[in-house]
Amino acid sequence: MRARVYVTLKPSVFDPQGRVVADALVTLGYQDVRDVRQGKFFEVELADADPATAKARVTEMADKLLANPVIESYRVEVLQ
Amino acid sequence: MKFSVAVFPGSNSDYDAFYAASRVIGEAAELIWHKDTDLKGADVVILPGGFAHGDYLRTGAIARFSPIMGAVKSFAERGGPVLGICNGFQVLLEAGLLPGAMVRNDRIKFVSRIVPVRVEQTDTPFTVACASKQVLHLPIAHGEGNYYAPPEVLDDLERNRQVIFRYANEAGEVGAEWNPNGSLNNIAGISNCQRNVVGLMPHPERASEAALGSADGRLVLASAVRWFADRVVRHA
User: Fold this and answer.
1) Is the pTM of this model over 0.80?
2) Between A and B, how many residue pairs show a Cβ–Cβ distance under 8 A?
3) Which of A55, A69, A79, B176 lies deepest, with the highest CB count within 10 Å?
């Protein structure tokens, strides 16, 4: 079983990396780029479990380790 | 008294801290591997600078779960003085021993230079030998020293006088132009509510002898010695 976790900086936290990427895109000629926010993506392989249990487990992992709740938010998806 | 310096895989200022405590300050010091669960009779614990666990995931995020951190946490809860320097500060933030978090420097650069740092509070184990508002010249060397805390946490820090060090100019004035990394309120170091746990991004241990460009950092470790001596007298 596989789960996906998307971690992003909270909107109130400035993202210097995203800003640099946005500037680079504008330099490349993408004048329509207004902003970029950079995040993290995790694919977690799990022993088989029912989807609700898997989601609860991975949410716990995101809370404890994958994201820092002071500056980041996350979203968990469980794939069948 | 004894300084115990934790060593994580990727620590690189561990020996600098050990050297400053033992050879410059002249106290007992010991390096303690992160897999140990015993602080070996520490009176003061130092979490040193470096790139613990490669800074993978987030700075300090993995080191926080090292076995030694359980002992550091109980030591801190008993009121033991803990100093986190640079990456050690990041570990304390991730471990929840200090409030807030670090994000990348606002100008994308790794910043490595000696900067003026103003001592805001002198009633902590690591600043008791400093004068109030004294300007120390300390090296910084980090890519992720941009201190962030949500507004209500920042207000609490200021109200409780938990901001211990601020980036300033030579005259001790604090302003955006002397902020090397974008830290909120020019914060270079903070303490917990109980004031026994202190974290700072500058490296006092790398500025403990004039040959290193500044000996001001000596005051930070000398503070711990004075603080410890005062307590021994008070409890005698």
Assistant:
1) yes
2) 38
3) A55
- Structure tokens of B127? 């600043």
CATH fit for domain B2-235, picks 3.40.50.880, 3.30.870.10, 3.30.70.20, 2.30.180.10: 3.40.50.880
User: Is residue A77 helix, strand or coil?
Assistant: strand
CA distance A8 to chain B (A): 12
Interface predicted TM-score (ipTM) of this complex, two decimals: 0.86
DSSP string, B170-191: TT----GGG-SS--GGGEEEEE
Domain with A38 in it:
2-79
Query: How far is the C-alpha of B93 from the C-alpha of A61, rounded, in Å?
Result: 18
**Would you kindly state where each structural domain of chain B is located, as residue ranges?**
2-235
B33 touches B65 (CB < 8 A): no
pLDDT at B236: 58
How many separate domains does chain A show? Answer: 1
Residue B170 designated active-site: no
| Banded model confidence at residue B235, pLDDT cuts 50, 70, 90 | low
Probe site for chain B from A70, A71, A72 (most B CB atoms < 10 A)? A70
Burial status of residue B89 (CB atoms within 10 A of its CB: 0-12, 13-18, 19 or more): buried
Q: Which residues of B165-191 are buried (b: 16+ CB within 10 A; e: fewer)?
A: bbbbeeeeebeeebbbbbbbbbbbbbb
Q: What is the CATH number of the domain that holds A36?
A: 3.30.1280.10
With CA atoms as reference, the chain B residue closest to A71 would be B101
- Residue B177 designated active-site: no
A14, A65, A70 ranked by CB distance to B100: nearest: A70
B235: left (phi over 0), alpha (psi -120 to 50) or beta: alpha
Q: What is the DSSP string of A34-55?
A: -----EEEEEEE-----HHHHH
Partners of A22 on chain B (C-beta within 8 Å) are none
